[in-house]
Amino acid sequence: MTYATGERKTAADMMRELRRQVEERQGPVTDETLARTLGISTGALRSYASGRTMIKPTALRALAELAGVQVSRVYAEMGWLPRHEVSAVRQPDLPEQLQAAAAAVTKLSESLDGLASEGTGRATLLAAAAVLGDEQAAARFQVRLHAMESGDRCAVPATLLAEFMPGDGVRVLDRDELTERALAVGMRPVPPVSPDLDGCDPVAAQHRLFQAELEVVTADALSRAGDFSWQGEPGTTLWQPVSRRWPTHLLVQHVLTGQPFAERLPWASTDGLPVVVIGAEYSVGPTAALLARALGWRFVPVTSATTFDSGRLVRSPALAPPTRRRQGWGAAARRIGVLSEPAAPLPVVMLVRPYVFGDQDAYDVAARRLLRDVRAHIVYARPTPGHLDWWARRRQLTARGAQPAEAWKADVHRALARVEEVLEERSAVLGPEHDLRLRLAPLSPSPDPGDPVVPDRLTDSQFDCAALCLGWLDRVANKGRVPLTREIRPSALRSRLSRTDTSGTTVGSW
After folding, report:
1. Does residue 217 contact residue 134 with C-beta atoms inside 8 Å?
2. Which pLDDT score is estimated for 249?
3. What is the pLDDT of residues 443-481, one digit of tens each?
4. CA torsion angle 223 228 230 232 (round to 10)
5. Is the entire prediction scored with pTM above 0.85?
6. CA distances from 195 to 143, 203, 396 (A)
7. pLDDT confidence of residue 72
């Protein structure tokens, strides 16, 4: 077969690039050694590399394998594959991409705990695996994983992102095909493009259909992925600085609070009571996960799908949106039991968002009664107006049609007031030390709500709060024993304990 000069030049360029990658892995290689490894003569190698003759496919395959590069990708670049097969293999090497993603998540986990954690960043990894493992989706989307760090004294990877970008020239799927796939995984039909939803904006309409495709492809995997959110829709701006494209399709999960995890060598308290932390990302939500890791206890972020089967944490379909996490809180409170009834020790830290206890519907009184009677120690920290204002304005940048900032703050203020009323009732019956009530110090300077990175001072305060929790547990559930600071498990808190500040600068007693 006769090859044109341009084809031989393409092959020569490919050979040089593959040889460069071989030498990056193995060090400098002579022509003689490389030729012998490829099973060809030194003269043939030099002829191929100069572009005088065309390299044989078997030799190019051997060179690609030596360089650790997917052979089908090399053949696609050479134009040696049928047209209908090219789009699927010109994506980044899928196995290598997924392996790199797993390695990145493991590394982040190790930096958090000193121990590898399967759960850390699970939503991002599971979604990436689902897309890259779906033959159709893998040919249509590029996947990028990214981590954002926060903290000054106690720096940690705080947020993990998985960005899914349609390839150049990729068109949205037909709505009927999407609906069929949605039916197969138990999702609702994909709604038609409408002026009400998209405002006749073709970019918004296209974005919504790509998003629907991703949600269908990842639905099964993400059903066990904890708390996460999809971001990047047109008209929002918060995550734009850390994205490759905008608008985009961005899956976001908070490293500390996004994923439940099981106990590991749990510390045994003297009273066997679990800990319930009432907080969120704008207050002390991450404290719950830090404390659970340090104690070796199970961590359960209570969601609308939290339920238990014979005492075992399982996931159930969520109720309608108006009930939100109240379903999960009811299941969690029933699992814990009430103070008037004896129960076996339960080494669990549960995180419950404050708005569960606000004035919303007919479940208001029941949700607060469960809190009053729950058989647990409770940790609560009152956020400042600055904390709530920062989070309220940040929410406005993440979703079109988000609740107005002032209305959201008013709702949260009412919920916090209800929580504090219940804690006063518990204090009068159980004593002031049974539950831990704290207050956050103002954030200074005021954080920029448009910055996607969590303020360093807020992250530091999570560690400070967790350190205060250890001292409090020493007093109420570790009397007469080795101090908890000498007993806590390998964890982010233990490795940063010497850098925490319990003087009241960031968080103090109420």
Report:
1. yes
2. 97
3. 988 999 999 999 999 999 999 999 999 999 999 999 889
4. -160
5. no
6. 30, 12, 22
7. 65
The Cα 428–Cα 365 span in angstroms is 19
Q: CB of 495 within 8 A of CB of 114?
A: yes
pLDDT value of residue 240 = 96
- Cβ atoms 357, 415 nearer than 8 A: yes
Residues of the chain above pLDDT 70, percent: 84
> Per-residue pLDDT for 105 more than 60?
no
- Would you report the helix, strand and coil content of the chain in percent, each value rounded to 5? 50, 15, 40
Q: How many residues does the structure list for the chain?
A: 510
**Which residues are within 8 A (CB) of 103 and not within 5 positions of it... i.e. 6 or more apart?**
none
Report pLDDT digits (tens) over 148-165: 899 999 999 889 899 999
Q: How far apart are CA 275 and CA 289, in angstroms?
A: 11
Residue 333 contacts residue 306 (beta carbons within 8 Å): no
| Number of neighbours of residue 445 by Cβ within 10 angstroms | 9
Give the CA dihedral 350, 355, 357, 361, nearest 10 degrees. Answer: -130
d(CA 292, CA 385): 28
Confidence of residue 292 (pLDDT cuts 50, 70, 90): very high
**pLDDT of res. 99:** 60
Separation between Cα atoms, residue 230 and residue 248, nearest integer Å:
10
Distance, C-alpha 484 to centroid of its chain: 29
For residue 171, which amino acid is it? Answer: R
CA atoms lying within 13 Å on the CB side of residue 313: 24
For 118-174, give the DSSP string: SSTTHHHHHHHHHHHTSHHHHHHEEEEEEEEEE-STT-EEEEEEEEEEEPTTPPPPP
Highest mean pLDDT among 79-83, 390-394, 482-486: 390-394
Crossing angle between the packed helical segments 202-222 and 175-184, to the nearest 10 degrees: 20
275, 370, 422, 437 from 429: Cα distances, Å: 18, 15, 11, 15
Three-state secondary structure call for residue 136: helix
* Residue 392: both structure tokens together: 């309220």
**Residues 269-281: tens digit of each pLDDT:** 999 999 999 999 9
